[in-house]
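Hi C.,

You asked whether I'd gotten around to modeling the 319-residue construct. I have! Everything is below, sequence then structure, no commentary in between.
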Amino acid sequence: MKRFWFGLLWLAAFAAAGSAAGHRYIPPIPLAFIVVSGAAAGRLVGGLLFLFLAGLNVLPGARLGRGAPVRWGVAQAAWMVVQFFTMQVATQFLVVLVLAAGIGAMLAAHGAPVGAGLRRDLAGLGFLPVLATAAGYLAAGWWSVWYIGRLGSARFRDGSPTGIAWRPAPRVAYLAALGCLAVVGAAGALVQLVDPPDKAAEAHNMIVLLFGHSPWKLAVLFVLAAGLAPFLEELVFRGGMIAALSPRLGAFWAAVATSVVFTACHAEEGLTYHAGLLVILCIAVALAWLRLKYQSIRPGILLHVLFNGFSVLALAFTR
């Protein structure tokens, strides 16, 4: 209870300091045509800084304590997934906020109107959403590795359903991953044959809007989707989430729940093509099967890398 009150005091202090600094140094920022005052933006920055330092466990009086056993169950699974996406969104907003504040300050220093001028400048910054997306994913990855890593190295390498399963797998497991890729690819082709995607609607897909209109953005997407996302998502979903749910639900139902949650977390990708969610569900089931069958998340990482990589290449050649 004492740590809770100390944490609350730290949060209030960061929010107050951010409010004062924002009022003094941050001009009004038009985001989605809603003007955010400098004080409000400063409070947000202060709150995010508090969360970052609290995650590092460095705030006096609000430290989590040492030596206590790390609980790992359904609540921790939910918290891990929620925080994975919260860290992405919060970091993305923070990057946009800081860069927008910097641009606004430069415009104000040169006597330019901050409101409409800043909107125009932000609209022309093609790198801004890409940079924010990359920063958000890196922050979420850092947090997830730290959170799961608290379980210790033995649990991390444990291949049972209650372990994280970061361990070598037999060669046949990687061949099985290639077989799963062929099956999922065939399922995807069948889905598109039965229910062809609407090209006009696909043009409004968020990934296409953010990354699909220039070679360098597609290159960044390829690095994020095929180089970073598979490692982090397999660690979070097929590693941490299955390990957290298995003691309560059993390995099979933990895999089912993980596959459903994984598909739901990618729902935005199916907003413009609903049938595409079936393909995501298929890849989620294949990843869960590989993890339980071969007691390792590494074959799933290979499948995830290849699936995402081919998806980005398909986007590049069909845009």
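If it helps when you're writing up: Residues 162-318 form one domain.

Thanks,
B.
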